[in-house]
Amino acid sequence: MKPNKDDALLAYIAGFFDGEGSVVILSRLQERSKNPTYSLIVSIANTVLKPLRMLHSVYGGVMHKAGKVVPRQKQVYHWRLNGKRAADFLTDIRHFLIIKKRQALIGIDFQNRKENVKVYRGHPISKTEVAYRERQRTALRKLNKRGA
Question: What is the DSSP letter of 123?
Answer without folding.
Answer: B
